[in-house]
Specification:
- This protein has about 325 residues and is an alpha+beta fold.
- The chain is about 40% helix and about 25% strand.
- The protein has helices at about 75-95, 120-135, 140-155, 165-170, 200-215, 215-240, 240-260, 265-275, 300-305, and strands at about 5-15, 25-40, 45-50, 60, 105-110, 175, 180-185, 190-195, 280-285, 290-295, 315, 325.
- It has a six-stranded mixed β-sheet with strand order 4-3-5-2-1-12.
- Strand 3 (about 45-50) and strand 4 (about 60) form a beta hairpin.
- The two termini are about 15 Å apart.
- The protein binds (3R)-3-hydroxy-3-methyl-5-(phosphonooxy)pentanoic acid.
Length: about 325
């Protein structure tokens, strides 16, 4: 019997990039999920099919020892996706102590790829959960989060925080500071997402901030200021003060722009959402292109985004209280 698991994507309320340097961040899981189905095979081969990833789907079939799968899609896309899926399957086989288990893996996702909504973390978390359960092992969400973090860290050459993977595994709003990960009680947060239809390279953007931080004191200070802002944001969350959360999101966007990770499309969407009545708006994730998140309990921000040429798609995103779950 194949085993299916799903895991949610996320938006950053506060703190992306600074979290890489040990500052706190507050990501929130949203109801856009990746679903991974795993079936054990009778041999030691792997087969991975991805459908509906908001990019062209593909199928790859190869033996455990082959290093060059023969597929008819652009190599960088396959390499990027396969890096995460291969590493997720390897950690699942390790957890189940079944190094030679052959697996068929099918991925579906309604989270745009590389757009700041945590698509890779959701796929990795769901893949580890489905594969371990298929091989007869039940891991707690926290254990899945830790293995998923190691996968992201290795695939992204050491540059990853625990924020995306922990948030996707446990759901809800979370606070991550280094290896200290916990869930937060939050008021109902009226998230609106604007998506410019493009994707970014998280590794490149993280490297850019690292270089800026090494060269300029202002960039070090900016990372520290984002940390201060997150701590103020936590107070506003405790008090359920949405107006203050919005003000702090606006400042967080400005600080991220100072670190060079905004883009014209992101700035245009942020301004459209604010002018449409949002309490605040900011880019979410690595930046460079992709998504913004706004807080708006009316329809104004979503309407304003839908009328903005830079915005390809806008939608309301419910907080996902479930993290990884069996489907
Ligand atoms: O754009 P995403 O979803 O890959 O988010 C990246 C968030 C960063 O803080 C920039 C990097 C990280 O690993 O936390």
């Amino acid at each position: 019997m194949p085993t299916s698991s799903s895991a949610p994507g996320k938006v950053y309320l506060f703190g992306e990039h600074a979290v890489v340097y040990g500052e706190p961040a507050v990501p929130c899981a949203i109801e856009r999920r990746a679903t991974v189905t795993v079936a054990e095979r009778g041999d030691d081969r792997q087969r991975v099919s991805a459908a509906d990833l908001t990019l062209d789907g593909f199928t790859v079939e190869y033996g455990a020892s082959d290093d060059a799968p023969d597929v008819d899609v652009p190599t960088p896309l396959v390499e990027a996706a396969m890096g995460y899926v291969d590493a997720a399957m390897a950690t699942a086989r390790d957890a189940a102590d079944r190094p030679d288990a052959g697996l068929d893996v099918t991925i579906e996702s309604d989270i745009p790829l590389g757009a700041g909504l945590g698509s890779s973390a959701a796929v990795v978390v769901a893949a580890i959960d489905a594969a371990t359960r298929e091989l007869g092992v039940d891991l707690a969400p926290e254990a899945i989060a830790e293995r998923a973090y190691e996968v992201e860290r290795d695939v992204q050459s050491g540059e990853a925080s625990r924020a995306d993977t922990f948030c996707s595994a446990v759901g809800g709003a979370v606070r991550v500071e280094g290896s200290d990960c916990r869930t937060l009680a939050t008021p109902d947060l009226p998230f609106v997402v604007g998506y410019d239809g493009t994707s970014h390279d998280t590794g490149e953007l993280v490297a850019g901030v690292r270089a800026l931080r090494e060269e300029y004191d202002f960039a070090r200070d900016t990372v520290g200021s984002i940390g201060d802002l997150v701590r103020r944001g936590e107070e506003a969350l405790r008090e359920g003060d949405v107006a203050e959360l919005g003000r702090l999101m606006d400042v967080n966007h400005g600080l991220l722009a100072a670190l060079g990770v905004s883009a014209r499309s992101l700035d245009e969407m942020v301004w459209a959402a604010r002018e449409g009545g949002a309490a605040g708006a900011k880019l979410t994730g690595a930046g460079g292109g992709g998504c913004i998140v706004a807080l708006d309990d009316g329809a104004g921000a979503e309407t304003a985004l839908s009328l903005t040429p830079a915005c390809d798609e806008s939608f309301r995103a419910e907080l996902a209280t479930d993290g990884v779950r069996a489907e």
